[in-house]
Write a structure and sequence with these properties.
Length: 98
């Protein structure tokens, strides 16, 4: 399964776009819900069991932490951009230091 900045890419490989004013918390919750629905559909599990299974994965824990963490009220688009810039800066600093 592929991963993106917040965890996982939905089944089928397509990322859902972030809505204009969506918060980080809403984005993370929607990602968890998409993953649970996809798992329930693939496995035949109840949605409740699939939600628990997704929530128990490392990616699920990261998404739950993100949904309730310090960035939860930020606009998701702005937060994603700051994460990407931070990672680019880390790579650049690593290359300069090597």
């Amino acid at each position: 399964m592929e991963r993106n900045a917040v965890g996982v890419v939905p089944s089928g490989g397509e990322e859902k776009s972030v809505q204009q004013d969506q918060s980080v918390s809403q984005m993370a919750q929607e990602a968890l819900e998409r993953q649970a629905k996809a798992l329930a559909h693939r496995s035949g599990q109840s949605l409740e069991d699939a939600c628990q299974a997704v929530s128990d994965t490392e990616a699920g824990r990261q998404l739950r932490d993100l949904a309730s963490g310090e960035h939860r009220h930020e606009r998701a688009q702005e937060w994603q951009a700051s994460v990407l810039w931070g990672r680019a800066e880390e790579r650049l600093m690593h290359q300069i230091g090597s």
